[in-house]
Design brief:
about 45% strand, 16-stranded antiparallel barrel, 7 helices, mainly beta, Porin
Length: about 450
């Protein structure tokens, strides 16, 4: 590609800012619909695979751009939910997210091997069933709703691979959950979608679509890796404004660390993903129970004790148990058979109201003959309310304990660019309250690649 044409293409696509989905630390065994935090992972060239799209190759324009190092993508993820049981009203709500992306392959553009630049713009819109139907759950029944119905610059980062793929560094505007504690977003209930720490400690662990300035480095040796990051903690990132980034208002630094093992021939000779990690946030936060004199706030009425440092740990296991697996686009396994998962998260009980969550379940791809791309999912989760956070309540008041969620879904891959996923959710003790009517959700999640 000639120099002037290359410059024009880079300028035009930067102005358009239309991205591909989030990159993650290691490949989950299932691809996802595009509405959440962890998307299909690329471990090779970001332009090695050309997914089918509704709008095609634009008469060859898209192909020429991709061959020159510029990949343009777009997606809309929709989630519709109806509560025939539970809540204060029975309502129907639809919400969704547009994702526009540009990926630059620096080797094709400039001859710089191993470099990738990613720009991502998202727009969330629609209605939240939790609010309009008075469901009041701990984990949203439409995971794609939240963080403001607004435009955001969700990704704006550069990644460079070194040492024959053993080391890579990424820096810029990042969403923390795209790398650390990353998990697919097939389900519609938030209990099973995206990085779990962000679903419990979301006031400082920012999942998609909220980004922050940060960097992370990863060292991979064979099937093992270790990854360390540093991210700005800045509440201004939650503002409903479209900006490149905030340059003031930071309260601290988030430092996550993760160790992983991703064997391609693990249990029964099938691929798996095993990772453990933790984080430390240097910011200060209110103690949920004690006052400035280390006495119960409910009794003294004094200002809360300010704690320095917030932290947590997590473990995530995912393993294919039956069937077959072959190498797919970008090195991501293509699975046919049964895959099980288990996610466990524990947050700092001094400062976090929902202190732990455990979620597990399975995916089954190719359940029916002739429908090898379709998938079936079942998930079960428990989200716990921190007992320290409810201690200030009067003894006569209802006291929340834990919320239990279940979801069953079927992913109909109608075409290569359209997925429809009907689902049913059942939430026991919504909000953690045993006296509240259990909630039934009938839902439809869909994704279209443009």
């Amino acid at each position: 590609m000639c120099g002037p044409l290359r410059t024009a293409l880079v300028s035009a696509t930067l102005a358009w800012s239309q991205p591909v989905f989030a990159q993650a630390a290691d490949a989950p065994l299932q691809t996802v619909d595009g509405a959440g935090d962890s998307q299909t992972i690329q471990t090779k060239s970001p332009t090695a695979f050309v997914p089918p799209t509704f709008t095609g190759e634009w008469g060859g324009i898209r192909t020429r751009l991709r061959d020159g190092g510029v990949d343009l993508t777009a997606n809309y993820g929709s989630e519709t939910a109806w509560n025939p049981s539970g809540g204060t009203e029975h309502r129907i709500a639809e919400t969704g997210q547009f994702v526009f992306g540009t990926t630059f392959d620096t080797q094709k553009l400039f001859g710089l091997a191993g470099g990738t630049f990613q720009a991502t713009v998202t727009y969330r819109r629609g209605s939240n069933l939790d609010a309009i139907a008075g469901i009041d759950v701990l984990q949203q029944v439409q995971e794609v709703y939240g963080r403001g119905q607004t435009w955001r610059l969700t990704q704006f980062w550069y990644q460079q691979v070194f040492a024959n793929g053993h080391v890579d560094i990424k820096a810029g505007r990042l969403t923390q959950g795209e790398d650390f504690a990353s998990f697919s977003c097939v389900f519609m209930n938030l209990s099973f979608c995206g990085a779990p720490p962000g679903n419990l400690a979301g006031d400082y662990w920012y999942n998609w679509p909220v980004s922050q300035w940060g960097a992370r480095a990863r060292l991979r040796i064979d099937s093992y890796y270790v990854m360390l990051g540093a991210y700005e903690v800045n509440p201004n990132n939650l503002d409903n404004t479209f900006v490149l980034g905030h340059f003031h208002g930071a309260t601290g630094v988030m430092v996550p660390l993760e160790f992983g093992f991703t064997p391609s021939h693990g249990l029964s000779g099938l691929p798996g993903s095993y990772k453990v990690g933790g984080w430390y946030n240097t910011s200060k936060a209110d103690d949920v129970y004690l006052d400035i004199n280390d006495q119960p706030r409910a009794i003294t009425g004094l200002a809360p004790l300010r704690r320095t440092g917030r932290y947590g740990v997590y473990a995530q296991f995912q393993q294919q148990l039956t069937g077959t697996s072959t190498d797919g686009p970008g090195g991501t396994p293509v699975v046919h058979g049964l895959t099980a998962f288990l996610n466990i998260t524990q947050t700092d009980r001094r400062t976090t109201a929902t202190d732990n969550q455990i979620a597990g379940g399975f995916f089954y791809t190719g359940l029916f003959p002739g429908r090898q791309a379709d998938d079936f999912e079942l998930g079960l989760a428990r989200t716990n309310v921190n007992a320290r956070s409810i201690s200030p309540l009067l003894n006569t008041a209802a006291r929340p304990d834990a919320e239990y969620a279940a979801e069953i879904a079927y992913g109909l891959h109608a075409t290569g660019w359209l997925i429809l996923r009907p689902n049913v959710q059942y939430i026991v003790d919504p909000g953690g309250y045993s006296h509240v009517t259990n909630v039934v959700i009938i839902g439809l999640k869909g994704s279209i690649q443009f």
